[in-house]
Amino acid sequence: MNGNKHRVVLSFGGNLDNTLYCFEKATKKIKKKIGEVEITSSIYSTQAWKMEKDTPDFLNKVVVVLTDLKPKELLKATQKIEKKLGRKTKSINQEYKDRPIDIDLLFFDDRIIYKKKLVIPHQLLHTRKFILKPLSEIIPDYIHPVIKKTIKKLLLSCDDKLEVKKQHTEKE
């Protein structure tokens, strides 16, 4: 990586009426507070993962960002953006709730971080098609630093049965 810039991959997810608006606002706030948005996936929809059957479908996308921030600073910045856009609580013990936006840190360069409040790469991303599909669209050959497989191969071997459909292509 050139200089102090880090290449990070973030995922956006949400399932409330204002989710697309939140994605748009979050992208603008990221450009202003975090760094340059290098590439953005299309927006995908999928059934709510591990939630009640009548829960609205989720929208998801991933973005690659170049930033000067350190991992903990990045986490604080993304959580601040979530809060400003209406996120009330974080998921605890895999108990998921409806939300306008959720921003997860998927990758930070090729670093592996295991801290109490920050695990990178995201420990569940290889089990979630709604993350792997948009990742496969924009960085299919990126090698997961822990699992040592490309995103494309992780998607092909993923057991997640939920259908993930491309909804929108964004122009950044």
Shape: globular
Element-by-element helix/strand order: EHEEEHEEEHHE
Q: How many beta-strand elements? A: 8
Return residue spans where pLDDT drops below 50 for at least 5 consecutive residues.
Answer: 91-95
Q: Could you give the distance between the termini?
A: 22 Å
What CATH architecture would you give? 2-Layer Sandwich
Task: Describe the structure in your own words.
The chain has a single domain (6-168), classed as 2-Layer Sandwich (Alpha-Beta Plaits), CATH 3.30.70. It is built from 4 helices and 8 strands; from the N terminus they run E-H-E-E-E-H-E-E-E-H-H-E. The chain has helices at 19-33, 71-84, 129-138, 151-156, and strands spanning 6-14, 35-40, 43-46, 58-67, 102-108, 113-114, 119-120, 164-168. A hairpin with a 4-residue loop joins strand 6 (113-114) and strand 7 (119-120).
Salient structural properties:
single chain; 172 residues; two-stranded antiparallel ribbon; 4 helices
